[in-house]
Amino acid sequence: MTHRKQSLFAVLCLVLLFAGSALAQGLYWESTTSTSGGPMGDRTTTAQNFAMPKMFKIVNSPKVMILRMDQEKMYDVNTGTKTYSEMTFAEIEGFAKKAGDKMAAFREKIKNLPPDQQKKMEGLASMMGGGAEEKIEVNATGDTKTVSGFACTKYVLKKGGKDFATLWVTKGVSGFDNLRADWVEFGKRMAALTNMTGMGEAYQKIEGFPMETDMNMMGTITTVVTKVEKRSTPASEFDVPAGYTKTASPMMQKAGQ
Predict the structure, then answer these.
(1) What is the CA radius of gyration of the chain?
(2) So what's the pLDDT on residue 111?
(3) What pLDDT sits at residue 110?
(4) Closest to 33 (Cα-Cα) out of 243, 215, 199, 251
(5) In whole angstroms, what is the distance from residue 154 CA to residue 201 CA?
(6) CB of 71 within 8 A of CB of 93?
(7) How far separated are the first and last CA of the chain, in Å rounded?
(8) How far is Cα 132 from Cα 161, in angstroms, rounded to an integer?
(9) How many C-alpha atoms does 136 have within 13 Å on its Cβ side?
(10) Strands 43-52 and 55-60, how do they pair?
(11) DSSP state of 169
């Protein structure tokens, strides 16, 4: 899994838990994501996250990702080069379908491998989100701990009978309960992009704001929210800055479009 996909997946884990009516008030939070044991090696990144009705932005300098439900688009901005690319949600879904078709062909190809090699390659395909997804179980453990000053409860997600993710969520974030409908749709779009559509249903069973998320995907991805607050962000902050040059989307180039 590429670092970009790991970053998108980390965003997905947060976005899938949002939803709600249109409010003037939104949320802002800061997070740290650490990866270890994966193909990209050990690394830690920090991000600023802005949420408003029908708009979401994650800043991981110099990269900025903007999701606009009102425009049905995702923008990928680079503040270092002052460039940006964009994809419609329809294009994202088309990209995901092509990726799924390629993975299906890969699964067909490995059927002739020896059983031990086939099992290993099947596991790799599953972790990359290819092919039909196994059902994800959601278990509330009742365990509690404090994360960044918030009292949290523990949820464990299981896939194929094995622990797939651990989340510590809180009901103590003011304003979170009012952000729950636009963001379900955001989650669906992000799930399509990461080929993890089964995650949407699983995350809707979790109540509360995710303060810490641990994912086991070809290594461990841990995201911890270090600060969260209610904040109204101007709509202009979800626009591509003036003067930036539009470039072709890397994902669309990869898909041969």
Answers:
(1) 18
(2) 76
(3) 80
(4) 215
(5) 18
(6) no
(7) 22
(8) 16
(9) 24
(10) antiparallel
(11) E
Q: What local confidence, expressed as pLDDT, does residue 19 receive?
A: 41
Count the alpha carbons within 13 Å of 8 in the hemisphere toward its beta carbon.
25
Count of domains for the chain: 1
**Domain annotation covers residue 120:** no
In a domain, 181, yes or no: yes
* 125, part of any domain: no
Residue whose tokens read 């425009």: 71
Give the C-alpha separation, 16 to 13, whole Å: 6
Q: What is the pLDDT of residue 180?
A: 60
**Interior CA angle at 189 toward 186 and 192, to 5°?**
150
Q: CB atoms < 10 A from the CB of 117, how many? A: 11
Distance CA 219, CA 215 (A): 8
Q: How far is it between the farthest Cα atoms of the chain?
A: 58
Amino acid at 250: P
User: Is the pTM value of this prediction over 0.70?
Assistant: yes
3-state secondary structure of 116: helix
User: Domain range spanning residue 11?
Assistant: 3-83+135-187+198-234
Q: Are 154 and 170 in contact (CB under 8 A)?
A: no
pLDDT averages per 10-residue partition of the chain, 257 residues: 50 49 68 82 90 90 92 94 93 75 75 76 58 74 96 91 90 72 63 62 78 84 94 94 93 56
Q: Is 208 within the bounds of a domain?
A: yes
To the nearest 10°, report the CA torsion of 24, 25, 26, 27: 170
Backbone torsion region of residue 238, taken as left when φ is above 0, otherwise alpha when ψ lies between -120 and 50, otherwise beta: alpha
